[in-house]
Amino acid sequence: MIMQTQMPIVTVIVATLAEDAAFYKTLESVLSQSDISVEFVGFIFDEKYDLANPDIKLQNLRGKQITLLRGKDGGIADAWNAAISYAQGTYLCFLGAGDYFCSADSLAALLSSHSEMNVLSNSCLVFYGNQFIQLADQKISPWLQQGDPNEKGLNRGMIIPHASSLWPRVLWNSESFDRTFRIALDYEFALRVSRQVQFVYVDCPAAIIQPGGISNAPSHMLRVVKEDIRARLKNGFSARIFSVVNAKRIIRWLLMR
Question: How far apart are the first and last CA of the chain?
Answer without folding.
Answer: 60
